[in-house]
Fold this protein.
Amino acid sequence: MLNTGDISFMLVATALVLLMTPGLAFFYGGLVRRKNVLNTIMSSVFVMGLASVMWVLVGYSLSFSGNTGGFIGNLDWAAFRNVGLEAGPYANSIPHVLFAAFQMMFAIITPALITGALVERMRFKALIIFIFLWSVIVYYPLAHMVWGNGGLLAKLGSVDFAGGNVVHISSGVSGLIAAVVLGKRRGYNMTKYHPHNIPFVILGGMLLWFGWFGFNAGSALKADELAVHAFMTTHISAACAMLTWVFIEKLKTGKTTVLGAVTGAVIGLVAITPGAGFVPIWAAMITGALVSPICYTFITVVKDKFGYDDALDAFGCHGIGGVWGGIATGLFAKTSINSVAQWDGLFFGDTRLFAAQIVSILITILVASAGTLICLKIVKLFTPLRVTDRDEQEGLDISEHGESAYPSFVGLD
Amino acid sequence: MLNTGDISFMLVATALVLLMTPGLAFFYGGLVRRKNVLNTIMSSVFVMGLASVMWVLVGYSLSFSGNTGGFIGNLDWAAFRNVGLEAGPYANSIPHVLFAAFQMMFAIITPALITGALVERMRFKALIIFIFLWSVIVYYPLAHMVWGNGGLLAKLGSVDFAGGNVVHISSGVSGLIAAVVLGKRRGYNMTKYHPHNIPFVILGGMLLWFGWFGFNAGSALKADELAVHAFMTTHISAACAMLTWVFIEKLKTGKTTVLGAVTGAVIGLVAITPGAGFVPIWAAMITGALVSPICYTFITVVKDKFGYDDALDAFGCHGIGGVWGGIATGLFAKTSINSVAQWDGLFFGDTRLFAAQIVSILITILVASAGTLICLKIVKLFTPLRVTDRDEQEGLDISEHGESAYPSFVGLD
Amino acid sequence: MLNTGDISFMLVATALVLLMTPGLAFFYGGLVRRKNVLNTIMSSVFVMGLASVMWVLVGYSLSFSGNTGGFIGNLDWAAFRNVGLEAGPYANSIPHVLFAAFQMMFAIITPALITGALVERMRFKALIIFIFLWSVIVYYPLAHMVWGNGGLLAKLGSVDFAGGNVVHISSGVSGLIAAVVLGKRRGYNMTKYHPHNIPFVILGGMLLWFGWFGFNAGSALKADELAVHAFMTTHISAACAMLTWVFIEKLKTGKTTVLGAVTGAVIGLVAITPGAGFVPIWAAMITGALVSPICYTFITVVKDKFGYDDALDAFGCHGIGGVWGGIATGLFAKTSINSVAQWDGLFFGDTRLFAAQIVSILITILVASAGTLICLKIVKLFTPLRVTDRDEQEGLDISEHGESAYPSFVGLD
Amino acid sequence: MKKIEAIVKREKMEDVKAALNKLNVNGMTIYQVMGCGNQKGWTEEGMEDLNILPKVKFDIVIDDKMAEKVIDAISEAAYTGDIGDGKIFICSVEQAIRIRTKERGNDAL
Amino acid sequence: MKKIEAIVKREKMEDVKAALNKLNVNGMTIYQVMGCGNQKGWTEEGMEDLNILPKVKFDIVIDDKMAEKVIDAISEAAYTGDIGDGKIFICSVEQAIRIRTKERGNDAL
Amino acid sequence: MKKIEAIVKREKMEDVKAALNKLNVNGMTIYQVMGCGNQKGWTEEGMEDLNILPKVKFDIVIDDKMAEKVIDAISEAAYTGDIGDGKIFICSVEQAIRIRTKERGNDAL
Ligand SMILES: Nc1ncnc2c1ncn2[C@@H]1O[C@H](COP(=O)(O)OP(=O)(O)O)[C@@H](O)[C@H]1O
Ligand SMILES: Nc1ncnc2c1ncn2[C@@H]1O[C@H](COP(=O)(O)OP(=O)(O)O)[C@@H](O)[C@H]1O
Ligand SMILES: Nc1ncnc2c1ncn2[C@@H]1O[C@H](COP(=O)(O)OP(=O)(O)O)[C@@H](O)[C@H]1O
C-alpha cells in the first residue's frame, strides 16, 4: 500500500541522486586543466539527458522487467508500458514509476563515473557512442543480475545494497580498461597535471556526499529504520575515510591537503555503498577507515608501476574502493540488520556470504571488462577514440565544443 | 487532515523552490561579463528578501484570499492574519502556512526570471522599484486568476499545473517588454558578449533542475501519485530537450556545447511546467523534444530580425518555452491523469481545453505586457531606468555596488 | 511510535544540516584572500570528519546520555552502545539513531563557525587540536545543559529552539576569544583584506539558507505544525534582515552590496534560531529586521574601537546575532506556540522567561570563554598557534597544505 | 619609434583609452599588473597585499613625433593628484612589423 | 642582444611556440594581454569589450644574429591574413644574466 | 635610467621584494607570466603545460648607478641553484614621468 512518508522520502532521495551527477561533474571538472573543464563537465551533464531517455525507452525494462537467463530482463516495460502509479512490484509502498525514477538516477551516474578515467583526450562523439553502448551492454545486464527479479548475482546469495558492484566496480573497471585502450594523455610522465580549480573539486565532493544520502538511505526504498541505519553508516564511513586519508598524507608528505580530505570522503562513501544497509555502524567505521590506505597505496604505488593513465582515478577510487566495499560487506554483514542477506559475514563465522561476494565481484569485473572492450571496438567503427594531438594541446573545450570556460580570465591554460 | 508524509514532502519542496533562485542567480551570473556578475546575482538574491516580505504582508492575501471580480484577491489574509497551522483551504493535508510558504517561493523566482532580460545596463534602484510594482500589478493578479479561488483563468477551464502562465510566460513577456523599453546594451551588434564563467552557468542550471522537482512535483501539494507523475514528466522533458538542443547545435554549427546542453535542459523544464501533472510521460517527452527547436529558432532567427536585446533570453526561453508548454498542455492533457482538467487535450479529440489554453495564454501576455509598461512608466517618475554610459562601460558591479567579484584575478573586463 | 513522514522529514533535515558546513566553507572561503582559500575551506571540511567520528565515539553520549550534575552526560552511549533504531528517548516518532545523526550535524557546524575568526593565520595543526578539545570542553557540556535530560539551562526554564546558545553564541564568543589570543593578521589596519571570490560567498550563503530549513524546522523533530511554523519564521527573518542590512548600507555608503545582502540574510537566520519554534511570525520579522542594525553597528563601530581581528566576523555575526536572538526569544515567545516554553515572553507581560534567557546567555558566554581559554592553553603545549610571518605572507594554502586553489589563474595573491 | 609604458590606476583605464583614441592612437597593448612606487601601498583602497596594488599597464609603440603628445594625454587622463597615480616610462624601439602585411617601421603602427 | 615582443592571436600560441622550438629558441616569456590595433576590435569573434581583444604576447631575448630569423618564423606562424594578426616590436637589450649560473650576455640566453 | 626585467620562480617573489626593499628600491611592477628557458619545463613541480612554467616577472626602472646593485640583490634573492631559477634582462630607458607631480627623469623613480 502506498505510504506518503515513503513516497515523500523517495521523491527527495531520487532528486538527491540526480544531484550527484552535477556534483561529479564539478568534482571532475575542477581536477582537470582549465582548457578541458567544459569537456569534462559536459561528459557528465550530457549523460543526464542521454541515459534518462534511454532508461525510459528500454533501459528500465531491460534491467527490471522479467528475466532472461538471469542475465537481463526483457522489453515488456519498454517506453514505460505497464509502468504505472500503483505500488510494487519492487517496492510495496511507493508507485512503480517512482522506483523506476530512482533507478534511473543510478543509470545516469554510473557511466558518468567512467568519464573520469578518460578526460582530456577522448573525442566527445566517441564518448557518447561509448556510453550509449556501455549502458546496453554492461549496465542494464549488471543491474538486472544484481537487483532484477531472478538476477544471477542475487541468486548466488551475494548482496549489494546500493550499487557497489553495479555502480562502482563496474564503472571503475570500465574506466581502467578504456583508459588503457585510449592511451595516455599528452605529456604523461613529463608534466604534472594540476587541478585547475580546487574549490570546484570540493563543491563537487560535497554535493556527492549530500546526494549519497539519497543514494544509500534511499536504497531502503522506504523511510524506515533501514534507511536510517544506511544514512548513519554512510556518513560515518565517509568521515572515517577522510580522517585516515589525511592522516596517511601527513605521515607520507608532512602536509594535509583538502584534496586529500575530499578524496577520502568520497572513497569512504564508495566503500560503504554495498554494505550500508547490511553492516553495523562500527563495521562501517572500519570499512571507511581502511579504504583510504587501500586506495592510497593503489593510486600512489600500484598505478605508477603499471603506468596507465587513469586520469582522475576512476579505477583507483571507484574500482578499488568498490571491491573493498564488496569484501567488507562479506566480512561484516549481519542478517539481523537486513534479512536480504541470507548469511552473516565472515567475521561472524560464516563463509558463505563472503564467498558469494567474491564471486560476484569477479563476475562484475569480467562483465565490465569484456563489455567495455566490445563497446570500444564498436565505437572505433564510427570514429577514432582520441582527439588529434593538436586538439589535445589546445584543449578539448575549444577543439570539441568551441567554448572557453572563463574567457576573460587571462592566464595561459 | 494533516498528514506527516505530505508535510514532510511539501517542506522539502518549498526549500527546493527557494534554492532555484540562487540557482538562477548563478545561471544568469555566469552568462554576463565579469564586470556585471555581482549586479546580476544581486538582482535575483535581493528579490529573495523583497518578495518574501511583500508576500507575507500583502502578496499572499491579494493572490489567494477571497476573490475580487476574478482578477485579484482581497486583504483578509494580509500580514498572514487568519493564516494558521490548520489544514486547508487550498490543500487539505498540509498546514495553511505551508501552502503560503510554498507559493511564496514562486513569487520570488518569477520576478527574478525577468532580470535576465535586463542585465548589464539597468540601474539597480530602478530594478527594485520595478520588481516591487510588478509583483503587485502583474504577479498577484495572475496568481489569483490561475490558482486563486474564483480566478478568471481557472474558470475558463484552462489549467496550469506549476506556473507556465503565472511564472514563465509572465516573466518572459515582461522581460521582453522591459528590454525593449530599456534599450540595447552598449556595443550591441558590434561586440560579442561572452559568458564570463560557464561553470557557474552549469552550476546554476543544475540547481534549477534539482529545485524544479520541488516546483513541479510539489505543485501536487501532496506526496501522492500525482507528485510522482509530475516528477517523472519533469525530468524526462528536461532530458529530451537537452538531447534535441545539442542535436540541433551539432547540425547547425558542428559543435555541441555545454551551454547548449544546459539551456536545453532548462527550457525542457519550462515547457513541462504547465502540463507536468496533466500529460502522459510520452507526451512529456514530445513536449521536451520540441521545445528546443522552437526556442532555438526563435533565439537565433526571430530575435535577430527584431533586434531587441533580451540579454540572457528570458523571453526566448521562458516566454516562448512557456507558451509552447501551455499549448502542449492543451494538446496532451488527460483528465484521467488529473481531474482538475475538465477536458482531454486536442490530441485526444476535444477542442475545449485547447481553446481555453490559447485564451489563457493570450490573457497572460496581455496582462504581463500592459502591466510591465505601467510599472516602467511609474519607475521613470523616480529614477532613470539605465545607468550612464560611463557606468555601463565600467561595469555595474563597481558603479552600482562598489564591489568587484574576483578582485585579485587579473584580466580586463 | 515510528512515523514514516517524520522519519522522511528528519532524514532530509539531517542531510540539509550537513550541507550547511560546506556552505559555510564557501561562505568563508570566498571572503578570504586567494592564497588562503583552501586552508579556510579545509578548516570547515575537515571538521566534517573529525567531529563526526568524535560524536559517535563519545560526543553523543556526553551530550545526551544520562546527566552528571546538570553539566554533562555520561558514557553509557559511547560508541553508540544502546543507540538503536527504536523510537525515543528524545523524539518519539523517529529512530534513536536518527536523532543522534541530526544532532551530529550540529556538532560539526558549530566548531566550523569558530574558524571564521581565525582564518589567514592559524596553524592548521593547532586548529585541529583546538577543535578536538573545544568539542569536549565546550560543546558537549553546552549541548547537554540546553538539550540533554536534566540539563542546567533547560532547568532554568530558558529555551533554545535550534541552537542560539549552543551553536551561535558559543561559537561566536569562542571565536572572539581565540581571535584575541591569536592576534591580528599581518598588515591589519594597514591593508584592506578583499574577499577573493564574492560569488563563492553568495553560493555559501545560499546553501546556508537552504540548509537552515533543516536546522530550524528539523528541530521540531517531526514533520508537524511546529516544523512548518519554524520554517516560516526562519525564512521571513532572513528576508527582513537582508532588507534592513541593505537599507542601512544604502543610507551609510550610498551603495547596496551583494555581500551586505547575503550577510544580512545569514544573521537573520542566526537571530531566529533560538526562537524559530517559539515566537509568532510577526515577531520573527521584527527579530530579523533588528538584527541587521545591531550587528552592523557592532561590526563597524564597536569592533573598530576594540581593534581585535575577528577576521570574518564570527563574533559580530554569530555571537552578537545569537545574543540578540536569545533576547528576542525572551521577548516574543508564546507558550501557545510551543509549550516547551513555560512562560510567555516579556512583551506579553511575563518576566520569567526573559530573565531565564538572559541568565542562560550569560552562562553560555562564560562557559564558552573559559573553555576556549583552557583549550588554547592546552594547544600551546603541543604547537604554536600561529604560522610564521613568512608563511602568513606566502599564504596558508601553500605553507600549510602545499596546494594552490587555482594554479593556472595568473594574478598575484 | 618609442615605446611608452604607462602604469595607471585601474579605474582610469577607460579614460586613458579614450584620451588615446582622441589622438587617433589606436594601437595599444593593455595588461593588469601589480605594483608599488613610493606610495608603497599603504593607504589606498583596493590593495591586495601589503605594499602592492593592482594597476593597469599600457604599452604603446608610437612614432617619435607623437610621443610627447601621447605622454601628455596619458598624464592628463590618469591624473587624480592622489598618491598612486602612476608612472610613464619611455624607451626606444628599433623596428615594428605588422604581421598581416609584413609592413615595417612607422607604417606598421 | 635584441628583445622581440610579438603580440599574436590566442589561437596561434601553440604554432608560434612550435616555430620557435624549430629554430632551437627555447627561451621565451609568454603572457596574455588585451589589445587593439587599427583593427579596433570590431569584427573578430572573442572580443571582450568594445574595441579591445585578448591576445598573447611573447617576449624573446635573442642574439642579434638570430633576430631576423625569429621575426620571420613568428610572422609566418602567426599569419592568417585576417585583420588582428598581430605585431612584432624589436628593441635592444644591454645585458642578460642567468640567475642560476651568473652567466652574462649571449651565454645567458 | 635602466629597466631591469627579472623573471623568477613564483615562490621567490616575496624574497625578491624584500631584497629590493632593503636597497630602498620601492618602485616596481610585478606580473605573472609563463615561460621557458633551456630548462624547457621538464622536471619542475608546478608546470602547467608541457614545456611552459608559471613565473613572476619584475620590471624595475632604476637610476643607472643602482642597476648593478639591484641585479646582484635579485640574483641572490632568487637563487636556488636549481634549473629554472630565472633570468634578468637590462635595457635602457630614455625618460620617466611621475603622473602625479609631472616630475621627470631620476626624480620620477
Ligand atoms: N621604478 C619603477 N619601476 C617600475 N615600475 C614602477 C616604478 N615606480 C613605479 N612603478 C609602477 O607605477 C605604479 C604607480 O606608481 P606610484 O605608486 O604612483 O608611484 P609614486 O608613489 O612614486 O608616485 C606602481 O604601482 C608600479 O607598478
Ligand atoms: N602601436 C602599438 N603599440 C602597442 N601595441 C600594439 C600597437 N599596435 C598593435 N598593438 C598590439 O598588437 C595587437 C594586434 O594588432 P592588430 O589588431 O593586428 O593591428 P593592425 O590592425 O594594426 O594590424 C593589438 O591587439 C595590440 O595588442
Ligand atoms: N631568451 C629569453 N627570452 C625571454 N625570456 C626568457 C628567455 N630565457 C628565459 N626566459 C624566461 O626566464 C624564465 C626562467 O628561465 P630558466 O628556465 O631559468 O632559464 P635557463 O634554464 O636557461 O636557466 C623562463 O621561464 C622565461 O620566462
Observations:
- The first helix of chain C runs from residue 4 to 31.
- The CA atoms of residues 18 and 105 of chain C lie 5 Å apart.
